[in-house]
Protein: 4,5-DOPA dioxygenase extradiol
Amino acid sequence: MKRRQLIQGALGLCCAPLSGSLFAQLTEALPKTDTQPVAFIGHGSPMNAIEDNLYSQAWKTMASDLPRPAAILCISAHWLSRGSFVGAVQAPETIHDFGGFPQKLFDVQYPAPGSPEGAELVQAITRQKSGNDVVRLDHERGLDHGTWSVLRQMYPDADIPVFQLSIDYHRPMAYHYELAQQLAALRERGVLIIGSGNIVHNLRAVKAVDGGYDWAVAFDEQIKQKLIDGDHQSILNYQWYGKAAELSVPTPDHYIPMLYSLGLQRSSDELSFYNESLTRGAISMRSFVLSPS
Structure:
């Protein structure tokens, strides 16, 4: 047990309880603002980071529709972990976590600053809610393509602090939804929270044409209707949709980020859709924003 504590301490994965004064300092670093929107973005291929296409154009439109945030917290399908971690890096590196793409994509850098204060605030808020370190700090990991490929199009100047929250891949769907609910106060601190994944994501079934298989279209439309209805339980229990769900969500890594966006939804939020289409048969690019009315 002692060895485990020493290892965690060396990695910066545990810390002493936050004092009231430190909590006040963290909230001062991200002062109170008007309520921020929440977004879910279907990120699709990493090539969308450098291509001028319908998807990247819609992300630019989305950014212009949103108030400028003080910081961005992204929950990406590409940071899976055992336990929940939040990135506390001052200058996160650009992670090229893919293969088989042109060199010009590997050359892309997104040098946005990190937000250690935002990460510590996430830890402090969740500790207040639960009484323990549900979320631990990570002082090493940078930004994966689920984050920077989208933000490069939305905020090309890379001048807004960005930090990520990992997905504890060993937890049930309800865990992610409930963890997101604990983070609601960040919406009042100028933080734009983005879930980045895909509602339908089956790489084994992709084909070299636009549009979607019948089962992919059906599942995407079912989730859209549940979003409109505000039926979060049906979205959490997506397996209820049988074969279409099994094919659309063969693994939940790209589906889970949406649950964080939904966990932050308020009854008064207005729902707007972007990129309502499927590509390569089995990838839904559907994105949405939940805006305070």
Summary: Confidence is low (pLDDT under 50) at residues 1-18. Residues 23-292 form one domain.
